[in-house]
Amino acid sequence: MDTQKWWFQFATSMNSERDSETTFEEDSQPNDEVVPYSDDETEDELDDQEPAVEPEQNRVNREAEETRETLRKDCTWQVKANDRSFHEQPHFMKTRFFCIKESKYANNAIKTYKYNAFSFLPMNLFEQFKRAANFYFLILLILQAIPQISTLAWYTTLFPLLVVLGITAIKDLVDDVARHKMDNEINNRTCEVIKDGRFKVAKWKEIQVGDVIRLKKNDFIPADVLLLSSSEPNSLCYVETAELDGETNLKFKMALEITHQYLQRENSLTTFDGFIECEEPNNRLDKFAGTLFWRNTRFPLDADKILLRGCVIRNTDFCHGLVIFAGADTKIMKNSGKTRFKRTKIDYLMNYMVYTIFVVLILVSAGLAIGHAYWEAQVGNYSWYLYDGEDYTPSYRGFLNFWGYIIILNTMVPISLYVSVEVIRLGQSYFINWDLQMYYPEKDTPAKARTTTLNEQLGQIHYVFSDKTGTLTQNIMTFKKCCINGQIYGDHRDASQNSHSKIEQVDFSWNMFADGKLAFYDHYLIEQIQSGKESEVRQFFFLLAVCHTVMVDRTDGQLNYQAASPDEGALVNAARNFGFAFLARTQNTITISELGTERTYDVLAILDFNSDRKRMSIIVRTPEGNIRLYCKGADTVIYERLHQMNPTKQETQDALDIFASETLRTLCLCYKEIEEKEYEEWNKKYMAASLVSTNRDEALDKVYEEIEKDLILLGATAIEDKLQDGVPETISKLAKADIKIWVLTGDKKETAENIGFACELLTEDTTVCYGEDINALLHTRMENQRNRGGVYAKFVPPVHETFFPPGENRALIITGSWLNEILLEKKTKRSKILKLKFPRTEEERRMRTQSKRCLEARKEQRQKNFVDLACECSAVICCRVTPKQKAMVVDLVKRYKKAITLAIGDGANDVNMIKTAHIGVGISGQEGMQAVMSSDYSFAQFRYLQRLLLVHGRWSYIRMCKFLRYFFYKNFAFTLVHFWYSFFNGYSAQTAYEDWFITLYNVLYSSLPVLLVGLLDQDVSDKLSLRFPGLYVVGQRDLLFNYKKFFVSLVHGILTSMILFFIPLGAYLQTVGQDGEAPSDYQSFAVTIASALIITVNFQIGLDTSYWTFVNAFSIFGSIALYFGIMFDFHSAGIHVLFPSAFQFTGTASNALRQPYIWLTIILTVAVCLLPVVAIRFLSMTIWPSESDKIQKHRKRLKAEEQWKRRQRVFRRGVSSRRSAYAFSHQRGYADLISSGRSIRKKRSPLDAVIADGTAEYRRTVAS
Which domain holds residue 1132? Predict the structure, then answer.
């Protein structure tokens, strides 16, 4: 009976586990408005987020126990203020290497370099010899030192190997020196640290965990620090997080009240001995959990009290902080992801081809060795004149000859291939750096190839993954248009309401508060404001000036606004320019300049924004005693709360549709008169809700709903989230090149969708699918696959089904929450019964393992289906995603599509994605350098991506493919002459060339022309490359270099080697020279073949050259001249006298090449090699021309550059194309700070006074 009960419990637990982890219909549907759980969030943390109904006392007891348990389990990171020795205790040490130990607390120095002065040589040589080709030639060098098998002098391998190793080492050294410089620049920044009882200037790399530091305005934060105090009220500190998330709007942090009160003076900071227990270092930018123990009291710590490394202090004169995480432990470094060694697709293919050549080399050498053994047995043993004094058996002689042929034929695996590839890539990288058309003069920022190994991969991109904020957009919001009382303003009109195509922008000089930055062209709106004919117009801009949570600061008489979002800042700035300037605020008042007249209003309540409300309101009392509510919010929520008698409701709706069709971000404005009695009744409920200890936000939202109804519509604003210049054109060009764009952003769904339309990633004809649609489709597909996956599934061929009918233009917009739901990444609370300890049998373990395998297989199939579905869409936008999810999406496409990916971003939240993609591009702008430092390429504007891919990427791919095809060809043609010669020398491993010719062939005689083709060749110009993006597809389809092209080069090389050997052989068989001497000796024969080879391969690269310059022509004829010059020098009597054993071809060149017969033989050999190639090229370009051939043929006619035109939008009245992109922050604004008075500045003490005057009065918390 007990056994049955136990099995019932186990089965129940397994079902519960399966249900909790694999169900498609969760009780709680994903929330589109929130970013999903943090990357490192544990299941226990997720459990804590679930609401539960339980008795109050039980809840209190449970929370106390959980707090203690959490501290014991998670808060294992301990920090002692002003006590460096504490962190060096033995139990904080960890073993790094054998017995070498170091502290688990990282120092603050950042290290990205690979070598130091002592490790460079051994480590670099070790890394280079890990390459198969280099190691192979090292083995060859050793073999050549063995006299019994050496058929070539040792220097024929040593000299090229030293050149290859030397050039690669110099390149690696230059790269690493640049890394050293960048590391030193960051590590040597300075800040003030408490040492020996006072603040002293110290370098960042000297900062340690537990140090107390002081930061000043505009300083970068050197580590993750706990904010202790600042110069602002309540120790607020404003930080700019642009380097973390690309957002330039300021965010605020606030110290604990206890530290704000007692840690302002230098002497109190010196004696501060607080102890912190917190979570271990992790990558969660938005979360922190810990406890401060000080003065016999514990104080909870959260993310609002932590200043993260990489942020910048703004609008705060100074602040003090305690270092909690340093260096590699900081959150920004934890978010950097693992640095991956990136190699191109051509690299992998090239390695496989080199392995193929290895196999061919071994087979050919073995065949020739067997031939030699047979020949020795049949001929050599019976020919007395061939006796060499060694009594070896034929089989042993064949074995020795096997190694001899390995040495002779080693040039089939070209030693100079890798170094030549590196030189070409280095040159192409410099061309990218020097491209003036990718230089951004406004920020003095050139394009930069930060790696030199990926250039040709730029010509093979299938998918581009882009961030939105700061990458596609400038993150600058501009007030463009508005609709007031049903009338649209913002077009080009004069004061008489007449439209003009060309008109000067509005002059705001009449307004003393105008900042002069707003470009507006509707003079009629200014006329309406100044005349006051329509009261609604003034009311409209007054609402913008009063209904917000913006902070104001005066500097040198200028107003500076600090907004929770750039949208809100743009609206307040617009009101300021139109004559309604927000001047100041206190806890209970707000002061506005209304067309030059200052008026102060009592603020009765601020009803703040959140993602559920999608609106904010403010209730004010006018100087006349009237009470009004002003509200602004998304049209979808405002229209539900309007009074029935709103005459301009339909006109405003039409205006919203027009604004949305122009991809502007819309916001509705409305107001309401409130009676004194109504306000007093509502205020009682409001005060009661404000004091609720649990679910306070929900209680307040209910009270807000009661007052926000029967509103009078004033109009709507239209803000432009300014795209970077050329973004729509770039996306259009990339789409024509069959490159798919996916946008991955942490922004809201509506905002991301709006930008999709603005940059023409989405069009009015696009059918948009959302998370719920995709979930249903994938659920159906999984059911179908499960039904087909029976016993006979392996006998049925796989069926490739499409998710959508062909021909439709579809796009996918999915949020991070839905992404977790669909990809089965959602972390859920497991059944508690699984945590019970009970005996486990082998059967249970087997069932558990089988269950996990099924879940993994199911998850993998689900992910593959999602990728297949998403790739059928013309565009994909993932919004509200975490940095880890961005990287996950990139990895899924890499894994299941085997496609080449590129990720482009500008902030630290893009670093993981940039490192995961095959190629990472960083936007170097105002948002910091974190993404740039982790990228492979960087530039200042998104529009430069089209030139990077369509010009530099395509050219690099074509050049590299042409180089590799020719390189393999010339080496096969050179090496296989030895193979044909073997049939006539008893397979004796005798070389067909002079030793020095073999040594210098790849280094001098044939290297320069092919290097120049790899650096300079281009099939069409850069302008034509951009005009015809379809040319790009050859790289995506691997058409120019693959195994087929490799075998074509192999066959071409074999045929050329046959012609090079057999035509001179036939000419030499029965000949007599002019002087009666026979020129058919071995040395003359070697010179003839070598001369024909050099002329043939150099003329062949001339045939392969598409873009001729003087340098190309000089290199071809110069290489031939160099060959003859060196040959005559090496064959001279003088050098033979100096080195008789090394130079044995004395007089051969001069004797052989004075015979006309030899020259005729050389000319005939070259002609037979090249004329068929010329004929085939002519027929190919005439009968089967490629796309580039056609463009090249008509290039003069196509020189006029085509102008890109934006797609025309059609506005259809009555058909709503509105995409509500309400202009608010992603989080609550500053309303709590304002209403509590914590942000209101009192008289500020200067920094010097705070330091010097220990008895000064310090600001205390303003009573609410």
Answer: 417-428+954-1183
